[in-house]
Automatic annotation (TrEMBL):
Top-level EC class as recorded in UniProt: transferase
Name of this protein: 23S rRNA (Uracil(1939)-C(5))-methyltransferase RlmD
Keywords: Methyltransferase, S-adenosyl-L-methionine, Transferase
Assigned protein family: Belongs to the class I-like SAM-binding methyltransferase superfamily. RNA M5U methyltransferase family.
Record-listed E.C. numbers: 2.1.1.190
Residue sites binding S-adenosyl-L-methionine per the record: Q286, Y315, E336, D381
One GO MF term: rRNA (uridine-C5-)-methyltransferase activity
Signal peptide residue numbers: none
Residue positions of the active site: C408, C408 (nucleophile)
Keyword Transmembrane annotated: no
InterPro entries noted in UniProt: MeTrfase_TrmA_AS, NA-bd_OB-fold, SAM-dependent_MTases_sf, U5_MeTrfase_fam
Length: 451
C-alpha cells in the first residue's frame, strides 16, 4: 500500500471526535469520519509501519446502524455525521467512546452515572454561522455550510434538521435577496469580494432573534432594503437585532472591524435556569439552550451543598456557570481570557442582582496564582485544548477539597485528570451530557476530590 492508492474496506471502530480505525489485512486504517459497518472507498494519504491515513472518497454501503432517514444535505454537508443513526444508539456510542478514553489512561474506581440525552435531538441550535460562496465554480450564489471534505464549495442548507424555521427563513430569504443584487462573495484565496458570512442567533426562552450580515468594505452597499426585507419575514421570534459587521480580516472567521446596528439593539436577551443573560454578536453562549440548562443543573448537583463557600469559576466565559452557583455561595470569582466576555459576565451579574460575583480578565495559568483568596470549590470549564500543565499545578496548589471539571473534549480531559492525580486529586464521579446530537461531540462532567 502506498500514497494515492485507492482502497475499499469496512469501517471498524469509531473513536471520539469523528474518526475511525479499521483493519485491512495487517494494516491499521485511520480515517476522518465513518460509521462502524459502512463500506467505503478511500484514497491513501500517508503510510507508516503497519498504519495508513486515508480520506474517504465514496460511501459504497450504509452501516446496519443507519436506520433513520437524514436530511437532504446529509451526504454533502459535513455537519451531522451521525444523523442517520437512531438517537439512543448515538448515546450508546458516545458513552462507550468516553469510557474507552478513561480506561486507556488507567482511570478507574469512580462512579459512572451514564449519559444524559439532549432535551431536543433536532432543532436545538440557537446559533448558526453561514458562509457565502457557490456550490460549483461560477455557479449561482449559495449561503450555508462547507461541503464535506471541501474548503471552497458551499451548500445552502435550507433543509437542516438542527435549526428551526426562523433560521431557514432568514437563510433562504438572504441568499435569494443577494442573488438578485449580483454582489460578489468574498474569495479567501484572492481576498476580493463583498459577502462573507451570515450569523443568526436566537434567544430560545425569550423568543428574540439576531441577524448579523458580515461583509468586507470593498463595496459600498446600502443595507436598508435588506433590513426591511428581514423585518417583513413571518418569524416566530421577534427580530430584536439586525446588524452589519464589516470584516476585512484575511482569516475565514467572523471578526469585527466595524459594527453597524441596522435595527433594534446590538444584543439579544436569553434566560437560563431563572437567570438573565445578554448575548452580544461575538460573545460565547452554549449553542444548545435547553441542553445547557441540563448541563448546568448536572454540574450544580455534582457541586452539592456549597452554601457559604468561596467558588472559583475558571475559564468563566460570560459567567454562566458561576452565576448558576452564586445563589448559595458566599463569593464567586471568575477568570476569563477574553475581556469582552468578562465585561458581559459582570454586566449579567448586575442584571441578575448578584453582588457576590466578580469576574476578572486574564490567562488562567497566570492570573489564578495571584489570587490571595483560598477557594473551597473550583469549577473548571476550559476550551478544547484543556488546561495547561502549569495552570493545573497552580489550581491544585490552592488545596480546594473539590474540583468540578466540565469538558467539551474528553480526549484532553483524561490527560488533565492524570495531571490532577499527580497533585493528589482522584476522580469521584463522571457523567456525560449530549449537547450536540447527531454530531461526534459530547460534554463530560467530572467531580474530583482531594485525597
Amino acid at each position: 500500500m502506498k500514497r494515492r492508492d485507492i482502497i475499499e474496506f469496512e469501517v471498524g471502530k469509531m473513536e471520539f471526535g469523528g474518526t475511525s480505525v479499521s483493519m485491512l489485512g495487517n494494516r491499521e486504517i485511520h480515517m476522518k469520519g465513518g460509521l462502524t459497518g459502512q463500506k467505503v472507498k478511500a484514497s491513501v494519504k500517508k503510510t507508516r509501519s503497519g498504519k495508513a491515513d486515508v480520506k474517504m472518497l465514496e460511501l459504497l454501503e450504509n452501516s446496519p446502524m443507519e436506520t433513520v432517514t437524514p436530511c437532504k444535505h446529509f451526504n454533502a454537508c459535513g455537519g451531522c455525521s451521525m444523523l442517520s443513526v437512531p438517537y439512543e444508539k448515538q448515546l450508546e456510542i458516545k458513552e462507550k467512546q468516553v469510557m474507552d478514553l478513561f480506561l486507556n489512561q488507567d482511570i478507574f474506581g469512580f462512579q459512572f452515572q451514564g449519559i444524559e440525552g439532549s432535551p431536543q435531538e433536532r432543532l436545538y441550535r440557537n446559533k448558526m454561522e453561514y458562509t457565502f460562496g457557490d456550490e460549483v465554480k461560477d455557479g449561482p450564489l449559495t449561503l450555508g455550510m462547507h461541503k464535506k471534505g471541501r474548503h471552497i464549495d458551499i451548500v445552502t442548507v435550507d433543509g437542516c434538521f438542527l435549526v428551526d424555521q426562523d433560521f431557514i427563513k432568514v437563510l433562504t430569504s438572504t441568499v435569494e435577496y443577494f442573488n438578485e443584487k449580483d454582489l460578489p462573495y468574498y474569495r479567501g484565496m484572492s481576498h476580493k469580494g463583498y459577502l462573507r458570512h451570515l450569523v443568526v442567533r436566537k434567544g430560545v426562552n425569550t423568543k428574540e432573534l439576531m441577524v448579523n450580515i458580515v461583509t468586507s468594505s470593498q463595496v459600498d452597499f446600502d443595507m436598508t432594503e435588506y433590513k426591511e426585507m428581514l423585518l417583513s419575514l413571518d418569524t416566530d421570534a421577534e427580530m430584536a437585532s439586525i446588524l452589519h459587521t464589516i470584516n476585512d480580516g484575511l482569516a475565514d472567521a467572523v471578526q469585527c472591524d466595524e459594527l453597524r446596528v441596522l435595527h433594534g439593539r446590538d444584543y439579544i436577551n436569553e434566560e437560563l435556569l431563572g437567570l438573565k443573560f445578554t448575548i452580544s454578536p461575538f460573545s460565547f453562549f452554549q449553542t444548545n439552550t435547553k441542553g445547557a440548562e441540563k448541563l448546568y443543573t448536572m454540574a450544580r448537583e455534582f457541586v452539592g451543598d456549597h452554601s457559604d463557600k468561596v467558588v472559583f469559576d475558571l475559564y468563566s466565559g460570560t459567567g454562566t456557570i458561576g452565576q448558576v452557583m452564586a445563589g448559595a455561595a458566599s463569593k464567586v470569582y471568575g477568570i476569563e481570557l477574553i475581556e469582552e466576555a468578562v465585561v458581559a459576565a459582570n454586566n449579567n451579574a448586575k442584571l441578575n442582582g448578584l453582588t457576590n460575583c466578580e469576574f476578572v480578565a486574564g490567562d488562567v495559568g497566570k492570573t489564578v496564582k495571584n489570587f490571595k483568596v483560598k477557594p473551597d470549590l473550583i469549577i473548571v470549564d476550559p476550551p478544547r485544548p484543556g488546561v495547561h500543565k502549569d495552570a493545573i499545578r497552580d489550581i491544585a496548589g490552592f488545596g480546594a477539597k473539590e474540583i468540578v471539571y466540565i469538558s467539551c473534549n474528553p480526549k484532553t480531559l483524561v490527560l488533565d485528570l492524570v495531571e490532577f492525580k499527580n497533585y493528589g486529586y482522584e476522580v469521584e464521579k463522571v457523567k456525560c451530557m449530549d449537547m450536540f446530537p447527531n454530531t461526534p461531540h459530547v460534554e463530560t462532567v467530572v467531580k474530583l476530590k482531594k485525597i
